Fold Branched-chain amino acid transport system ATP-binding protein.
Amino acid sequence: MSGFLEIERLGKDYGGVKAVHDVSLTVGEGEIVSLIGPNGAGKTTLFNCITGTASASEGQVRYLGQDITHLPPHRIAEAGIRRTFQHIRLFREMTVMENVLVGAHLTTSSGIASGILRPAWQKKEEHAARARVLEVLEQFEERLLPRVDQKVKVLSYANQRRVEIARCLVSTPRLILLDEPTAGMNPHETQGIVELIFRLRDAGYTLLVVEHKMRLVMNVSDRVVVLDHGEKIAEGPPAEVTENPAVIEAYLGQRENAAIE
Ligand SMILES: Nc1ncnc2c1ncn2[C@@H]1O[C@H](COP(=O)(O)OP(=O)(O)OP(=O)(O)O)[C@@H](O)[C@H]1O
């Protein structure tokens, strides 16, 4: 179990605010671990520290035994860790294909569209990259494939979230961090993401998921880690964690987040 992702005594301060304080946790290969907690608990900050978007003030993040704590985001991505964002970050004027290609760093310096005099190897590489994107899009229940050449800005919010996940998958990472993957989705769409999460696990991916929808958390998680005010207050199997008095107390007054639907 250990040795895959290990977070040791991690801390992140913003001015005087301890967004994350003394958090340790491990994620074993092939696990689905959910990170929950009320608003402002530090979940996204922890994601940011793992993926290099924020630099930890204290502690260490190790991935496959390697210290990645202060590596830049692109190096962490290359090492096999990919993420989605709570607030969708896509190129709205670009197509689904182009957005997903970006995730693989497969657009060359000459650019997909501009290179008229591209050498044969480059065309071959581009062809392979597009084929890989189509293979990834097939996993999204016919939602994305028919829209592959549409601009992202015309897609529904749920489909934009799917494009973000596809962009993660295209480079075949080993660890995927999903930050509220079902935000803004209806129950049917949410169920589609639950099924996708299981398919990803079956395909060998390891997942760390920030999610507010408790039913989803209960369904998909092997283990749940609970943060409150930047600190880890509980960890364990989902059924056990939701019975934990400290967790119930942390959510009191924030019932809308608990969203026990
Ligand atoms: N860039 C930043 N600058 C200053 N303070 C920040 C920054 N990012 C986060 N914080 C603070 O750190 C704390 C944790 O925020 P974070 O966004 O990590 O929580 P969260 O659990 O993801 O919340 P939510 O569920 O609302 O997304 C909050 O008090 C927040 O205001």
Summary: Residues 81 and 239 are 28 Å apart (CA to CA). Residues 89-172 form one domain.
